[in-house]
Design brief:
- By secondary structure, the protein is an alpha+beta fold.
- The chain has 10 helices and 13 strands.
- The strands form 3 sheets. A 6-stranded antiparallel beta sheet has the order 9-12-11-10-8-13, with no helix packed on it.
- Strand 2 and strand 3 form a beta hairpin.
- The longest helix is centred in the C-terminal third of the chain and has 41 residues.
- It is elongated and about 105 Å long.
């Protein structure tokens, strides 16, 4: 952005100190008039107001009084040169809309590039390229979009590769969404799945812009990095919460079952998709706010930051409730299967074992809970603190000292246990 300002003579030293301390190129036009270039990345919408807001913010912070005369957006100068690939001579399609994707598929055959303003100029430079690069081969050719006939050769020819790729992505996305809307939805699915898919595509665009701002080095651009770092401990905490919610349906409290090792990793991956979706939405919202210059200095930045915090809070609470409901419903479904004699089920890294219990008869069994069930199989959970947990489909959970009873593994709860001797 180009901002023209007028500065009083008494304010010139402070103004020069300010612009030299910032990454703002400036030109002294004389008589207290300056052109200041404020670099801003993002959409062209709102860029003028954002640049003026940032300039005024730093002037007020430095105590420098200036008067803005005009503000205009600088247009980048077009580069008349482009890179033309050089590859071994082969037959290429004549029509450009077919030749462009073919050149993309043959990227592995490229031997180098020639920088020129037109295809004709690049072909004229091919002998020099072959002389400097004998390892490229003898029969070479220059490929690229043909030079336009009705324009000057100094203008950059149009490339159809990016246009065709973008059109292909748009068409594929539209077909996929139509498939989800009409034929691809599973039974009982709602239209909110389609809304989530559209929201994910939009947030991917905003996330890309958020990550692009990190190398600029500003404090507020490090929010994507902070959110990404917090994703790992959040997934671990939600995985532990899922295990505790699932075990609570069996009457097992927190920390009573050993869930370390591979089971903890499986639990983390079971909640990782929700954490990544929350991260995608947060970064997408942040990227859109920065890209469209909503987060300018002043009240706009405060409200935009507050909106990101509210989105993260609401989504975080929703994620916790969703995971707890999922684990609770899964536990109830497994319990109903166990009452019918099903085999042990696996969920969030918790895998019980169906066993038959037999008392040794040497010493009385130290137990907490209902009496031991010995006439039918029960579920065995490896507990912590030298305690084993035995869950019966009718009596509930019994806690016994480890190795105080004999456990014989069986395939399912429908098996029969041998009668005691």
């Amino acid at each position: 952005m180009r901002i023209g300002v007028e500065v009083e003579p008494a304010q010139v030293p402070g103004f020069l100190s300010l612009v030299r301390s910032r990454p703002w190129p400036f030109v002294d036009l004389g008589e207290g008039r300056y052109d200041v270039h404020v670099p801003l990345s993002g959409s062209v919408f709102g860029v003028v107001a954002a640049a003026m807001s940032e300039f005024r913010h730093f002037c007020d912070k430095a105590g420098v009084h200036t008067r803005i005369v005009f503000a205009a957006r600088l247009r980048a100068a077009t580069d008349p040169y482009r890179r033309y690939p050089v590859m071994p001579r082969t037959r290429m399609p004549e029509r450009e809309w077919i030749a462009a994707p073919v050149r993309g598929l043959l990227w592995w055959r490229i031997r180098g590039y020639i920088r020129a303003r037109s295809l004709a100029e690049a072909r004229s430079l091919l002998p020099g390229f072959a002389a400097r690069n004998p390892e490229a081969g003898e029969t070479l050719m220059v490929v690229g979009p043909p030079d336009p006939r009705d324009r000057s050769v100094d203008e950059r020819p149009r490339s159809y590769g990016g246009m065709l790729l973008g059109l292909l992505i748009v068409v594929a996305g539209a077909l996929y969404l139509l498939y989800l809307l009409f034929d691809g939805r599973p039974p009982g699915a709602e239209n909110r799945q389609l809304v989530i898919a559209l929201l994910g595509l939009v947030c991917l665009y905003g996330t890309w812009h958020a990550v692009r701002r990190i190398p600029e080095g500003r404090v507020d651009t490090w929010l994507p990095l902070v959110l990404t770092v917090l994703a790992a401990p959040t997934a671990i905490a939600l995985g532990s919460l899922g295990q505790e919610t699932y075990l609570a349906s069996f009457g097992i409290g927190s920390g009573e079952v050993d869930t370390t090792g591979p089971s903890r990793v499986i639990a983390v991956f079971s909640s990782l998709w929700l954490v990544l979706l929350a991260l995608l939405i947060a970064l997408g919202a942040f990227g859109f706010l920065r890209h469209f210059h909503v987060t300018v200095h002043g009240y706009g930045r405060f409200w935009s930051g507050l909106m990101v915090v509210l989105v993260m809070t609401v989504y975080g609470l929703t994620a916790v409730v969703t995971l707890m409901d999922r684990d609770r419903e899964t536990a109830e479904r497994h319990i109903s299967l166990y009452r019918e004699g099903a085999a042990p089920q696996h969920h969030v890294g918790v895998q019980p074992t169906a066993v038959c219990v037999e008392e040794t008869g040497e010493n009385p069994v130290n137990r907490i809970g209902p009496p031991l069930t010995t006439d039918r199989p029960v579920l065995y959970f490896a507990g912590t603190g030298n305690v084993d947990l035995l869950w019966d489909r009718e009596e509930g959970t019994t806690r016994v000292t480890r190795f105080s009873v004999t456990l014989t593994p069986v395939s399912s709860l429908a098996d029969t246990c041998p009668p005691p001797p």
